[in-house]
Specification:
The chain is α+β, with helices and mostly antiparallel strands. The chain contains 5 helices and 7 strands. It is globular. The strands form 2 sheets. Strands 2-3-1-6-5 form a 5-stranded antiparallel β-sheet, covered by helices on one side. The mean pLDDT is about 90.
Length: about 180
């Protein structure tokens, strides 16, 4: 098979499967609910609250305290919010932001950079973006009936994810 024919195959196209937005407050109480409100305003869907796995006295958290909020976005909404987040980062990511499985993540310092209005009662929160990239056909591995292994050629690699980022968003990858 010639390289040009591989590029035309629609099963080789990489797309965003999901975008996970996470705000980790690190303490229980009102700050977590306000962080959840920020995520609800941004994503227009209800956030999920994560709980502490165990008690850490020096951090002041107990087991099963809600300490963070996150939202999973898919489809067009995920791409729109990813675009906003990358605009804040000026379309520059480090090489270490990409994982070996072809996913990437980054963080922003202030949620108001995404275009949300500042509310003094809410405060300012930083958040993490994590993007999962997939090719069509990965459902074969996860489905209940007749699930099979997926070949290595179908999996997204770190280099392919970086190349996709540069092509799709005209991004810059820093070698730090």
């Amino acid at each position: 098979m010639v390289k040009g024919e591989k590029a035309d195959n629609p099963m080789r196209n990489i797309k965003v499967e999901k975008l996970v937005l996470n705000i980790c407050v690190g303490e229980a109480g009102d700050r977590v609910t306000r962080a959840g409100k920020v995520l609800a305003d941004l994503a227009e869907q209800k956030p999920v609250y994560s709980e502490a796995r165990y008690t850490i006295r020096s951090f002041g958290i107990r087991r099963n305290d809600k300490i963070s909020a996150h939202v999973t976005l898919r489809g067009e909404k995920a791409e729109q919010i990813l675009e906003k987040g990358l605009r804040v980062k000026e379309y520059e990511l480090k090489r270490n932001n990409f994982s070996s499985t072809g996913n990437f993540g980054f963080g922003i310092q202030e949620h108001i950079d995404l275009g949300l209005k500042y509310d003094p009662s809410t405060g300012i929160y930083g958040m993490d973006f994590y993007v999962v990239l997939r090719r069509p056909g990965m459902r074969v591995r996860n489905r209940k009936h007749a699930s099979r292994k997926v070949g290595n050629a179908q999996k997204v690699t770190k280099e392919e994810a970086m190349q996709w980022f540069v092509q799709k968003f005209d991004g810059i990858i820093l070698n730090k």
